[in-house]
Amino acid sequence: MVEDEPGVRSLSTLVLQGAGYKVVACENAKAAKVLFEHERDPFDLLFSDVILPGQNGIDLAHDLRVLNPNLPILLCSGYADDSVRWESIKKEGFHFLPKPYPTVKLLMAVRDAITPPLSIQPREFAHDEKTV
Question: Which domains does the chain have, with CATH numbers?
Answer without folding.
Answer: 6-114 (3.40.50.2300)
